[in-house]
């Protein structure tokens, strides 16, 4: 399905739609898989490295690398959105991969924990610039009809790669030690991604301009006051606080990644405390993003058919139930069920929240809106790691998981009360217009 636009940029006609832009879309999916793999190379390994090689015992201190990653990635998301609207998408994508080059080497050679934290600062910049830009570019390419499907494919690739690489890193760590084998994956991913971004990716900002020229307002008049260019301050205010759907998506994204950040730093320690070997911990950690990644192949497209709000509320509630299972479990089998359920809930939420932002944000300021939404969402890494570390130090690892479950319930209620349905058909295709046609 595609949508032709009577616009040209240079000599190349611009057409919106997944089929019309299949080659570029596929390249961007592959690049986003490599982005996810950069995170997966370390998720299973670093908590164990902190204890075994650096002798760290305080949970809050061990989670400093997650906090550094989350804060840096959130900040980089903002600049990715602003710069992609101002300078274009492709330069931001390439710059993001340049920041990744030192990361695996720093993790391999780190003589002290400060090197690991510094590597995660650079990784946060890499993730913020590259992941945000691939999201924006895919939204540019597909147009308004298939945003959910596009975001499902994008996030499935990224988190599927997290799962595969987490499992591969766990296997390499078990067979060859915690360093350097798992981090050689990151070196390979960076080289491939830089080559693809530089040689194969084309600029997509022209697609956003083409969509803006043919933008169709909602039949109910909502968003009329948001048409056209907004200042950076206005985009931040609308996305963070004022616009009900955008601000609801921002808080739900934060809580979703709060759960991810907490799981990143805490789950391996919880599983290890019951005597599970590294190999089984790697499997458990891979099940979460595997379900997350596979599920998004379906949930993104379903949100194009069913709407966004229902999936988001159901997904946040499912995450709360999954965390309750994980907090109370004592065996590998129950933990496996809990992590798979957590992945399923996250799959309902993750691409759908991005589709909400694409639905509401005007093409003229969409890049900045995506960046700001991802600022709030990825601050969840830091909030989850800090909250999990503090609660685990004061009480226990299991208590920290119960607290995250309660926060997820509150988030679901906020979306149910405040968010409206954002997915709509063009005015000429509404039931009302059909009835009067």
UniProtKB/TrEMBL annotation:
Sequence ranges assigned to domain Major facilitator superfamily (MFS) profile in this UniProt record: 245-437
Subcellular location: Cell membrane
Major localisation: membrane
InterPro entries: MFS, MFS_dom, MFS_trans_sf, MFS_Transporters, Sugar_transporter_CS
Membrane topology label: Multi-pass membrane protein
SUPFAM superfamilies hit by this protein: MFS general substrate transporter
Residues passing through the membrane, by range: 21-39, 59-80, 92-109, 115-136, 156-174, 180-201, 254-272, 278-298, 310-329, 335-358, 379-395, 401-420
Gene3D superfamilies xref list: MFS general substrate transporter like domains
GO cellular component, one term: plasma membrane
GO MF terms, alphabetically ordered: transmembrane transporter activity
CDD domains for this protein: MFS_MdtG_SLC18_like
Superkingdom in the source lineage: Bacteria
Keywords on record: Cell membrane, Membrane, Transmembrane, Transmembrane helix, Transport
PANTHER family: INTEGRAL MEMBRANE TRANSPORT PROTEIN, RESISTANCE PROTEIN MDTM, PUTATIVE-RELATED-RELATED
Protein's name in the database: MFS transporter
Provenance organism: Agromyces bauzanensis
Lineage: Bacteria, Bacillati, Actinomycetota, Actinomycetes, Micrococcales
């Amino acid at each position: 399905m595609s949508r032709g636009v009577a616009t040209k940029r240079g000599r190349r006609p611009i057409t919106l739609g997944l089929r019309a832009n299949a080659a570029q879309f596929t390249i961007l999916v592959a690049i986003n898989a490599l982005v996810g793999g950069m995170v997966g190379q370390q998720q299973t390994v670093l908590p164990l490295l902190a204890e075994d090689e650096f002798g760290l015992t305080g949970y809050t201190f061990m989670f400093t690398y997650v906090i550094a990653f989350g804060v840096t990635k959130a900040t980089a998301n903002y600049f990715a959105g602003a710069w992609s609207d101002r300078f274009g998408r492709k330069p931001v994508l390439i710059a993001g991969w340049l920041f990744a080059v030192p990361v695996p080497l720093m993790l391999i050679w780190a003589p002290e924990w400060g090197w690991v934290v510094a590597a995660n600062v650079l990784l946060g910049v890499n993730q913020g610039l590259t992941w945000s830009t691939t999201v924006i570019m895919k939204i540019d390419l597909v147009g308004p009809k298939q945003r959910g499907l596009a975001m499902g494919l994008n996030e499935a690739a990224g988190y599927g790669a997290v799962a595969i690489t987490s499992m591969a890193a766990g296997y390499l760590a078990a067979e060859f030690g915690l360093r350097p084998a798992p981090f050689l994956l990151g070196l390979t991913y960076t080289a491939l991604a830089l080559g693809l971004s530089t040689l194969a990716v084309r600029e997509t900002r022209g697609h956003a301009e083409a969509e803006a020229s043919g933008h169709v307002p909602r039949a109910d008049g909502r968003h009329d006051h948001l048409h056209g260019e907004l200042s950076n301050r206005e985009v931040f205010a609308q996305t963070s606080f004022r616009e009900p759907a955008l601000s609801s998506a921002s808080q739900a994204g934060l809580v979703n990644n709060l759960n991810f950040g907490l799981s990143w730093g805490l789950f391996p320690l919880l599983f290890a405390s019951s005597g599970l070997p590294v190999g089984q911990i790697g499997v458990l950690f891979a099940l979460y993003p595997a379900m997350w990644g596979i599920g998004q192949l379906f949930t993104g497209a379903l949100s194009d058919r069913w709407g966004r709000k229902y999936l988001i509320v159901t997904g946040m509630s499912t995450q709360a139930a999954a965390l309750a299972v994980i907090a109370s479990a004592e065996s590998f089998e129950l933990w496996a069920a809990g992590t798979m359920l957590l992945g399923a809930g996250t799959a309902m939420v993750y691409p759908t929240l991005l589709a909400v932002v694409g639905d509401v944000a005007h093409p003229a300021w969409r890049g900045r809106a995506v960046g700001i939404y991802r600022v709030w969402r990825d601050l969840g890494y830091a909030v989850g790691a800090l909250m999990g570390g503090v609660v685990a130090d004061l009480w226990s690892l299991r208590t920290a998981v119960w607290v995250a479950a309660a926060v997820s319930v509150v988030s679901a209620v906020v979306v149910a009360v405040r968010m409206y349905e954002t997915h709509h058909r063009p005015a000429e295709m509404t039931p009302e217009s059909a009835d009067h046609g």
